[in-house]
Design brief:
Rossmann fold; 521 residues; 24 helices; 10 strands; alpha/beta; Alpha-Beta Plaits
Length: 521
């Protein structure tokens, strides 16, 4: 939609363009004028949906301009922003149907509220225009919308006067949603033709609600939705929202409220291949999520393990669990994007330590962040994240064919605190354990258990240097028996763990987070 800014001063016109986020209200184009004559020509050629006007112009008064454009049947909305606050002008503005009369300088909150009212009036005007040639449809839309909004109660007289029959013992709402704002009047006209036997309510350019009064009618609507999505390009982004079922028309408002909750949270609730979202199914899904566990702290570590073990399907399942986790909690969109960006940054940081050339195979953090900012739904962002890390798996799989022992060392380095056996790792990597043991010894110069002990002793030394007690160090570094740990430590380091700690301990012991542990590999 378009906005015409009429003011003598360019600086004020520029300020009005920046004072509020116009695109959130559906406005994407600005035109400007500093006098009445130019404004009249622009209104005739551009036909803006909204005019912001100062009463004091160079060549005529703002009221004279309004009188002229009303005489020429201008149907857009007008907001006056002026230092002139005289009662006479305010009264005249009301008579002309001006949406708001604001004092200059205007505050952003005041202007946002006035523009919101203007947008609602514009949408209502479009609805009236849409139904102008259908005498019975206008009152139907008005009555049904007020019933769904809870502003009106259905009475049987509505059937004989307005042909609105809500007598049934089965009710379900099917809401058709178009996510992007555009001129969808043709789509709605076609939709109404396809569903002409159903009661319908057009709420806006992006929302059409149909009332199903029987199970068969509900299934008919869903079949029509599916047919449209599959066969007509203009319906490709059409999404169906299916409300719960009710038995009384007095529950229609509650059904609409629940549908609106889903629509307002589509960013979180939609899954990648969804063409319809059922309130009943969604409720069950959220209840299952509440009983599941997704630890964001250990999530990155788990993902890195999946990638290093080339577990593609498990990786995808983890990301679906993350989508559910965020859908249940619904953090602000910026926070959800930050969570994904933070995980991605940590993951690629670790992976490129092992595989430096991987940075040329997948997007860097900046490119990833740019992609997230354009995604319409959270599922799109998570799918993109999964796709990039699946590419990382493909790269590592190709590299690992050449260096299987490198993967073993990487796995030990990230899982040293867990119970590890060569046989279990061989199963994970798809090798015979005896063959892998010989290969490991040939390439590394030591057997698997000796290499594992050395890594664990190295990690133990790091914990002791930071003041971690010996017993905790034994546990953190993967030794289940403190006596065995002491014996091994003395063998490799030439002194007892307690002696080593005493030599390296800081004045104040550091706060140490124990390593994430998992079941035996």
């Amino acid at each position: 939609m378009k906005v015409l800014l009429i003011d003598n001063k360019p600086v004020i016109r520029k300020e009005l363009q920046n004072i509020i986020p116009w695109n959130q209200f559906g406005f994407s184009k600005f035109v400007e004028a500093d006098n009445g004559a130019d404004a009249l020509r622009l209104i005739e050629s551009v036909n803006p949906e909204l005019i912001l006007l100062d009463i004091r112009l160079k060549d005529m008064s703002g009221m004279a301009l309004i009188h002229e454009i009303k005489k020429n049947s201008y149907t857009g909305k007008i907001i006056i922003i002026s230092k002139d606050t005289s009662f006479a002008n305010a009264k005249l503005a009301i008579n002309y149907g001006v949406t708001a009369y604001l004092n200059k300088p205007v505050e952003s909150e005041e202007l946002s509220e006035a523009v919101t009212r203007a947008v609602n009036e514009i949408h209502n005007s479009k609805l009236i225009s849409f139904y102008s040639e259908q005498a019975t449809m206008l009152p139907q839309n008005y009555l049904l919308s007020n019933i769904l909004l809870g502003n009106m109660t259905y009475v049987k007289e509505m059937k004989s006067i307005y042909h609105v029959d809500l007598k049934s013992d089965y009710y379900r709402l099917i809401s058709f949603v178009l996510p992007q704002k555009s001129d969808n009047s043709d789509i709605w006209e076609e939709a109404l033709l396809l569903t002409k036997n159903c009661l319908s309510v057009t709420f806006s350019e992006t929302l059409l609600v149909l009332i199903a009064k029987s199970y068969n009618q509900e299934q008919f609507l869903l079949r029509q939705l599916k047919t449209c999505q599959e066969n007509y390009p203009q319906y490709a982004t059409l999404l169906g929202i299916i409300s719960p079922q009710a038995e009384r028309h007095t529950e229609l408002s509650a059904l609409y409220t629940e549908s609106q909750h889903i629509i307002q949270n589509l960013y979180y609730y939609k899954k990648i291949h969804d063409t319809a979202i059922s309130a009943d199914t969604l409720s069950q899904r959220l209840e299952e999520i509440r009983q599941a566990d997704c630890n964001l702290i250990s999530f990155t570590e788990n993902i890195i393990r999946r990638i290093l073990l080339l577990q593609s399907s498990e990786l995808e399942a983890d990301f679906l669990a993350l989508l559910d986790f965020l859908a249940l909690r619904r953090p602000p969109k910026d926070s959800a994007r930050f969570i994904l960006l933070n995980h991605y940054g940590q993951i690629i940081s670790v992976l490129t330590e092992y595989y430096p050339k991987l940075e040329f195979e997948i997007p860097d953090r900046k490119e990833f962040a740019s992609h997230l900012s354009y995604d319409k739904y959270l599922c799109d962002s998570i799918s993109y994240l999964n796709d990039q890390l699946q590419r990382a798996i493909a790269y590592i799989r190709n590299e690992s064919r050449k260096k299987p022992c490198q993967r073993i060392c990487q796995y030990i380095d990230t899982n040293y605190s867990a119970p590890l056996k060569l046989s279990s790792i061989a199963d994970l990597l798809g090798y015979n354990s005896a063959y892998l043991g010989k290969l490991f010894y040939r390439e590394m110069g030591v057997n698997f258990n000796t290499y594992l002990d050395k890594i664990r002793i190295k990690k133990a030394a790091e914990y002791l240097e930071k003041g971690v007690p010996v017993i905790q160090t034994s546990e953190f570094s993967g030794f289940t028996n403190p006596d065995y740990f002491t014996k091994k430590f003395k063998k490799y380091m030439g002194m007892l763990p307690s002696e080593y700690r005493a030599q390296h301990i800081q004045q104040r012991p550091a706060q140490i987070t124990p390593p994430h542990t998992q079941n035996e590999a």
